[in-house]
Amino acid sequence: MAERIAGPEIERLIQLLARLPGLGPRSARRASLHLIRKREDLLGPLADAMRVAHERIVVCLTCGNIDTRDPCAVCSDPRRDPGILVVVETVADLWALERVGGLRARYHVLGGTLSPLDGVGPRDLFLDTLPGRVAAENVREVIVAVNATVDGQTTAHYITDLLSHLDVRITRLAHGVPVGGELDYLDEGTLSAAIRQRAPF
Questions:
Q1: Cis status of the peptide bond prior to 78, with omega within 30 of 0
Q2: pLDDT higher at 112 or 198
Q3: CB 3.0–4.6 Å: which of 29, 75, 92, 117 could bond 184 by disulfide?
Q4: In terms of DSSP H, where are the helices of the chain?
Q5: What predicted TM-score, i.e. pTM, was given to this entire model?
C-alpha cells in the first residue's frame, strides 16, 4: 500500500480534478501541483470563480442552456430568428455551433441521447416540451443537430416522429459531420459546411 505523501486537502483536490473529463490521476496530480504553485494567480481566483458559478448558474427552463439568468441570453436575444429551432444533445454542442456563428437561431438542449442499452428513455431527456414549443413559437424549421452516432440517429428519428403531426420542416446537419463524430470536437470549418448543407430528414 502506497504511503500518503500529501495532506487530505491536497488528496481531495487531486481526486476531484481526476473526475473531470480528459484528466486521469496523473494529469490531476500535475494540475493540482500547478494550481498550488500558482496559488495567488490561479488557485484563489479559480476557487472564487467556481463558488460564484455554483451560486449563480441556472438551467434555462425554455431551452436547457446554462446561464446566470432564466430565460438565458440566447432565448432572450431579439435578434435571433424564432422560426428556426436547433435541437442539440448538450450545452457543449450549442456552444460549438455558436462559435461558428452561422446561425441566428434558438436552441433546444436535450441533455443527452436516447440509449435503450443504457436505460435512457424519452422521459430522461428534455423532449416533453419540444412539440409544444415548436407549435407555440411558430417554428418553421427544426434542425436536428445531434451527433452522428447510433444513439444520436435513434434520437433524431424519435424527434422526427414526435413532430410529425406539426407543420414544420425538419432538417439535419449534412456532410462534414463524420459518423461517430461529436460536435464539440469538430473544427469550425467542418461545422460551417455542415450547417450550410443541412438536408431534410
A1: no
A2: 112
A3: 92
A4: 8-18, 25-37, 44-56, 73-76, 91-100, 130-136, 150-162, 188-196
A5: 0.80
